[in-house]
Amino acid sequence: MAIPDAMIRVTLTGHLTGGEIFNSSFWVVNNAAEGAIDTEVRADAYAAAVRDQFQLELLPTLVPRITADSAYDEVRIYGYPDGGPIASVIGAASVTGGTGTGTDELPLQCATVASLRSDFSGRSRRGRMYLPMTAGLLGVDHQFTNVAAQAIADDTAAFLSAVNAIPRTFNVVVLSQLGTGSVVPVTEIVVDTRVDTQRRRAQDQAVTAITSASVSGQV
């Protein structure tokens, strides 16, 4: 797994009903020669800066799409100032206002995908952010509405644009960890209306109850 120097993994973490932990992440490259994220103090400060932009630009769009027993809890930073595969510095900042407000309950494995596109073709030049969608009305086509998808695309783009504007010349990128570890800037966010269902999460979900009933009349 090739992780070049000066890479940062930004992770949005939270919990769903029953305490299940979720996270959604993206890569950032630190292009500044000075002020690299190479200490815990700097990592915490950068996590707080990203947290502030997340709360401003994207969080208000996400909280109506999870229920009140779920929340976005923290922004975590994993820094690789000298490359990978192991992060040498970790930072964190708590999220406020991250508790869900949605009331239309959907299965816990439901999510929407924000596809991070670059100006280059190929799967290795694209990224994905899985965002929980455990609350939210579906249309007659059993998909999220165009309005909801557009709001997520617009506000994810606004959030990542704000991350790009944080001082010290950070840029949101797609990192291919195969081969040479190529890095390309994210230039577009694409969101469709389909409900993504993560089978792993369905398999790991705790069962609330199991019921049975007898069938009579056997010969």
Topology at a glance:
Layout: E1 7-15, E2 21-30, H1 40-57, H2 59-62, E3 71-80, E4 89-94, E5 110-117, E6 126-132, H3 146-164, E7 170-175, E8 183-185, E9 188-190, E10 196-197, H4 199-204
Antiparallel strand pairs: 1-2, 1-3, 2-7, 3-4, 5-6, 5-9, 5-10, 7-8
Helix pairs in contact: 1-3
Q: Keywords, please?
A:
219 residues; four-stranded antiparallel beta sheet; 29% strand; 21% helix
Polypeptide structure, described:
This protein is α+β, with helices and mostly antiparallel strands and 219 residues long. It has one domain. It contains 4 helices and 10 strands. The strands form 2 sheets. The chain has a 6-stranded antiparallel β-sheet with strand order 4-3-1-2-7-8. Strands 5, 6, 9 and 10 form a 4-stranded antiparallel β-sheet that branches. A hairpin with an 8-residue loop joins strand 5 and strand 6. Helix 1 runs antiparallel to helix 3. It is elongated, with a radius of gyration of 19 Å. The model has no long low-confidence stretch (mean pLDDT 88).
Gyration radius, in Å: 19 Å
Q: Based on DSSP secondary structure assignment, what is the total number of beta strands?
A: 10
Rough shape? elongated
Q: Compute the separation of the termini in Å.
A: 62 Å
Order of helices and strands: EEHHEEEEHEEEEH
- Broad structural category: alpha+beta
Number of helices: 4
- The overall average pLDDT, rounded, is 88
Relative helix content: 10-25%
Number of domains: 1
Sheet of most strands: 6 strands, antiparallel
User: In terms of per-residue confidence, which ranges show pLDDT below 50 for 5 or more consecutive residues?
Assistant: none
Strand order of the largest sheet: 4-3-1-2-7-8
Strand content: 25-35%
